[in-house]
Amino acid sequence: MTPHDHDHDRTVKPMVDEVTDFEVLEIALRELCIEKGIFTAEEHRRFTEFAEQIGPTPAARLVARAWLDPDFKALALAEPMTASKEVGVDWLEPTGFGTPSDFTAFQILEDTPTVHNVIVCALCSCYPRPILGNSPEWYRTPNYRRRLVRWPRQVLSEFGLYLSDDVEVRVQDSNQKHRFMVMPMRPAGTDGWTEDQLTEILTRDCLIGVALPKPGVTTNVITATRAAVHPVE
Questions:
Q1: Of 84, 101, 121, 206, catalytic
Q2: SS3 track for the chain
């Protein structure tokens, strides 16, 4: 190989192939807000860091506690915002108007032996991030959003979840002002388990409704993260 030859097969691809229209819009809006003094670049960085640290462990603990405590379960279903505070999530912090989502209502959907709930945002990707963390990539794809509302059983089967015909599948469509999460049924074989043990099997996918909790299955359970730093002093 001469000095002028080039091994194209070994060419390293760029980390970012293309900037999307949404990314361009975000950059423009962010820079305009900074220019207008709505927030500073430092505040934006710290808030982004805060949002990235949020995970679904509080939601899992909320459901585990509800499984063990009938009074807390009643509170969670009737006043989910109050129940969220019991597991360390205040939807109004740290900005005073929602973290990191603007919202009007939050509802916990209870599964029963005859009803299975699953959440989606058919319009975009609305998601209860303050208590479930950032949404998984597949949740934001048109493939999931468009198909779940039309063929929910087929989509659930693609996640490995097969429900009998006597179980009604209810698809709850989130929107800009309403957020939802699922409270699945407690699985058999967990008698005598502690709240910590139950929390571990309540994966993110269970709380979305595309999976069921099972003893010994902890895929997607949240890894330990450091406490979030208040992004704005």
A1: 121
A2: CCCCCCCHHHCCCCCCCCCCHHHHHHHHHHHHHHHHCCCCHHHHHHHHHHHHHCCCHHHHHHHHHHHHCHHHHHHHHHCHHHHHHHCCCCCCCCCCCCCCCCCCEEEEEECECCEEEEEECCCCCCCCHHHHCCCCHHHHCHHHHHHHCCCHHHHHHHCCCCCCCCCEEEEEECECCEEEEEECCCCCCCCCCCHHHHHHHCCHHHHHCCCCCCCCCCCCCCCCCCCCCCCCC
Known catalytic residue: 206? no
Q: What is the pLDDT of residue 225?
A: 44
121 is catalytic: yes
Mean pLDDT within 183-188: 97
**124 a catalytic residue:** yes
Please name the amino acid found at residue 204: R
Choosing from 84, 126, 135, 174, the catalytic residue is: 126
The tens digit of pLDDT for each residue in 41-91 reads 888 888 777 777 777 889 999 999 999 999 999 999 999 999 999 998 887
Active site residue 33: no
Residue 21 vs residue 12, higher pLDDT: 21
| Short-list 72, 92, 96, 76, CA closest to 84 | 76
Radius of gyration of the chain (CA): 21
With beta carbons less than 8 A apart as the criterion, state whether 108 and 86 touch.
no
